[in-house]
Amino acid sequence: MADFNYGGSEEENAELRKLETELADDPDNFETWEKLVRAAEALEGGINRNSNPQAITTVRNVYDRFLAKFPLLFGYWKKYADLEFSITGTEAADMVYERGVASISSSVDLWTNYCSFKAETSHDPDIIRELFERGASSVGLDFLAHPFWDKYIEFEERVEAPEKIFAILGRVIHIPMHQYARYFERYRQLAQTRPLSELAPAETLSQFRAELEAAAGQIPPGAKAEAEIERDLRLRVDAYHLEIFSKTQTETTKRWTYESEIKRPYFHVTELDEGQLTNWKKYLDFEEAEGSYPRIQFLYERCLVTCAHYDEFWQRYARWMSAQPGKEEEVRNIYQRASCFYVPIANPATRLQYAYFEEMSGRVDVAKDIHDAILATLPNHVETIISLANMCRRHGGLEAAIEVYKNQLDSPQCDLATKAALVAEWARLLWKIKGSAEDARQVFQKNQQYYLDSRPFWNSYLMFELDQPTSAATENVQYERIKQVVNDIRSKSALSPDVVRDLVQIYMVYLLERGTKDAAKEYMTLDREVHGPASVAHTKTGGAVQAPQNSSQAAPVATVVDPTVAAAGAAPQTSPYPYYQQTPVNGGVSA
């Protein structure tokens, strides 16, 4: 990078190199990205068609990378299109606009700019009109869509198509939007000059005519001139239009409650305050209750521009869409957009939901790939590892799930805290799925020496024993097991006194709820030792073994071996990263 020539002066190249280095260290820094875009645009005093090819390549590369990372920035798509128009011409700018509206299809500003550009650079009204119609289907329902509709009407005025202007206004007067009244007034004025056939649907006009004829039933035929009939019919149609206006006014007022609270209708990397998020949730609740599929879908698309980094809205959108019949591909598209472009990988919940969706759809391999992709970035994400193991169990049986845990426990990328949680999950699997509490107990007992400072491990071990079903005949045996776990926590673990106190408190509750007649004595002793003043308290007993200093290493133990080989007496091989003890339960050799 140090020798790379960006096409500018030495000083400009140095600035670009500096910014590229900063982005390599912090690729999510939005301010640095903006500086890089400005620096690239400023090469050679400003990029234009006469700039050297290397400088043009540099600015295109910067824009492409920037908009791939932040595709919802409509203003930068317009700037990029303007730049391409100045460098190459109309076709290149069109391509940028197409990429832009594909990335942020609900942007009124971008569609308005694109249609304006097309109207100025194309001489074919049909092509321009087709683009306006695409824009209308994408953003026409927006509460603030008036700039787009104004531009569409302006174009039809320029080509002198009054019938099309009237048709556009006839669509707009039904849409609840900020400037609905202005459009209705113009529509009402134009209606006076348009033929009756354009003022209402044919069946509505027939109904009105029949009503007028019935009302005039006492008048002899031919007594009323056709002009009078048309005048009366126009008055009836005008009343019909006023009903439309009243309905649109009511719908606009309903939505103004939520629209007036939207402070940032565009995307930005900064977080939204809680009030804004709550308003979007309430607005979505409202539209869903209204029940119009196009309006609900469009509001979700609007919301997910502003709230693109909030996975709760993506998941809500996917759940709503999945409730609509025949929308499997739409649901898949929602999950893909969320997972591949918008929701940070640090929040993998949406990706896991995507995996479950693909599994439900019969694409188990895709679901597995989604899990693997999460773990490639977050190798210590316990929830994802457990989810993968459970999915493998559902489709490959218990051994497939255990294999997932073994692979993770052998992985050098998996830290000790994660492995402690996985051992507990492995034991839980043996207990809940295989139905063998003894096998699960062996996993806990043989591995406790490696996870002395892990609260999740000891908490899981204690809760495992507490959750075992008992009877009057077996309660004493189980009591001894539970008590042994608590003794190990107090004497062997490397947990902090506060954690030990919390775990012992769980045991104390057990004593009161399930203990024998002597339980009160043990309870009071523990209460004194755990909760008493420093002079009498002894939260921990004995010398606690210190936890390993290096969280990625633990004392080596025997690795997993094939049970058939072990049974034949073959010596198990040593692995540098095993964090579970071999036992007859999990395929090891009996002592």
Oligomeric state of shown chains: single chain
Residue fraction in strands: under 5%
Q: Helical content, roughly? A: 55-70%
Give me the Rg, rounded.
35 Å
In the CATH hierarchy, what is the class of the domain at 10-212? Mainly Alpha
Which class of secondary structure composition applies to the elements?
mainly alpha
Corresponding CATH superfamily of the domain at 10-212: Tetratricopeptide repeat domain
For the record, give the distance between the C-alpha atoms at the N and C termini, rounded to a whole number.
59 Å
Order of helices and strands: HHHHHHHHHHHHHHHHHHHHHHHHHHH
- Would you identify the CATH architecture of the domain at 10-212? Alpha Horseshoe
Q: What is the name of the CATH topology of the domain at 10-212?
A: Serine Threonine Protein Phosphatase 5, Tetratricopeptide repeat
List segments where confidence is low: pLDDT < 50 over at least 5 consecutive residues: 543-591
Number of helices: 27
The largest sheet, given as strand count, sense and whether it forms a barrel, is: none
Total beta-strand segments: 0
Overall, the morphology is extended
On the 0 to 100 scale, the average pLDDT is: 88
